[in-house]
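Quick question, first post here. What does this chain look like in 3D?
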Amino acid sequence: MSKTGVKNLGEGPIFGQLIRLASPIMAAGFIQMTYSLVDMLWIGHLGSKEMAAVGSMGIIVWWLSSVILLTKVGAEITIAQSIGAKRLEEARVYASHTVTLSLILGLALGVTLIFAARPLIGLFKLESDVAGMACEYLQIICVSLPAYYLAYTFSGIYNATGRTSIPFYFMTAGLVCNILLDPVLIFGLGGIEAMGTRGAAIATAFSQGLVAVLFIWKMKQKNGIFNRFPFIVRLQKGYTVRLLQLGLPIAAMNCLFSGISFYMARVSSIYGGHLGVTSQAAGGQVEGITWNTSQGFSTALGTFTAQNYAAGKIDRTRRAYRYTLLLLLSLGVAVTFAFFYFGKEIFSLFTPETEAQIAGGNYLHIAAFCQMFMMLEIVTLGMWNGYGKTLPPALISIGFNLLRIPGSLGLASFMGIDGVWIAITCSAILKGIVSPIWFQIACRKK
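> Answer (accepted):
Ran it through. Tokens below.
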């Protein structure tokens, strides 16, 4: 590691570097997922209505997380490519720009959603008491949105420099804080009044603020990245446009994906009631096993590819892609088996209600068929990002995700809630087929 706090990924064993890069990213991803899982596990003991309230807000929180990919992905690509090309001052400027942009986004969206929470939640068509709990939960989360966006962007900066363990340490600290606060605030321990879903939101918001403070503290130390670069700068057109060109397609792709999932939650509510919403929300959290593992390797692969691509070492990027695919597809087989045969048992971890277990188990049973294809799509996304080509995977994702709407409405009309799950699964399979094929064709043409 150099004095500027960056690692050179252009030399050394490829597989070992990928594992060292991906492992902390995967762990941090699972920790991020665990924030919601911890809330769901505790709130599941309050009842299925409380679980539906928090679960439905998970989709909006997902949308908010998608927006900040604009700066996170932009940081990972621009900074990694600048490091690979040995332009460290350029990397430093990009780091400052991403932090400034993340603060602007966090403040703007946080304030807007605090006032727009109630009409937004009305789109879910939830029962009035469930909608009230969901609104309160969302407003509290939005207070901590600037801190959350800062932490997300700092994580992208560290990923680009190859120091992926730092975000893991800080995310772990936030998770421990959340685990300790949740039972105290939700159920009221040690003389503290029980706050239910409001307590879960406060615990999450406080924990996210802690993570942001830890990142700021670390970056201001003597061994901080790029000699303690400034966090707030006057945005320059060239750097800002480049960040938007790279980050906007991926952010738009994920925002639309979360928006479609938002609509699918409404369809699930129509055809399955609050059990349908619960199945999709908690089932999606369980699918995070596949998503976070794949995303960890995808981010690591994107950083590795960006540095080596900028350094002209194309063969190393292709070998890294093959290694990653072989490893993850092996894991995909195990996840598929578990979801198909043990869906109900897995879902029983979230709720003691038998009806909810059966409904959620059925969701995982159908979703089992697309797990390996999901991995294919996400890993290939890392290669697209590393090469600085973020538009093609965004187009693929947007196109096939949009098909979920007519597909779910058509199938649900005569298959019920199972038709919604089948439509989601089929679109994931198609994305996992088309993206790798398009990538291979693009590479051959180039």
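DSSP finds 16 helices and no strands in the chain.
The two ends are 33 Å apart (CA to CA).
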